[in-house]
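**User:** My hope is that you can spare some time for a protein that puzzles me. I have put the entry right below:
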Amino acid sequence: MIFTYNGDIIGCTKIGSSSKGIPRNIDHVGNMKSDDALFILLVEKDSAFLRLTEDRFYNRFPCVIVKPREGPEPDLATMKFLGKMRAELKLPVFALVDCDSCVLKRLGMRPGDLEPEKCRLPMTTEDVKTVENMLRKDYVKKNRGWVDELILMVKTGKKAEIEALCNFDFRFLSEVYLPLKLQELDWI
């Protein structure tokens, strides 16, 4: 992907496995182009982002990989940047995120097409309350996959964490899990 920022040309493919921070002022971003990307992949965790970029996942599955800024609240700069990319590049957005109360709150603010992936750990009382509140939201009710996943979370008392994928192998995420999900169109 290539874009301009304050008149400078930013060539993400030239950066390689390193990264370029998402600009805070999206009004200065323009001319977004990608010759080969098929989708945008939002990756919540640093460890997953680093694994995917070090393995050059984007070469096997042409995509733009985006990592939001850190913090407990939804990152508005990242969400605006994603919205601009989605509109200008006309690409779907997929998300590799933990399925926990923090992410569910983000989904509540930006329901778009961010779709959580899964690996299970015990839920907290706060997680259960958040899930129960999410099940009352109209946009959640319209997505059967989300409803089924949320009900399963409450029923089992488990939430999803990306780090659990590392228990299999350090390259399991980039070489097995995500390729399989993309090939089989297996996401919610």
Remarks:
- The chain has one domain: 2-183.
- Strands lie at 2-5, 8-11, 29-33, 39-43, 63-66, 93-96, 120-122, 158-160.
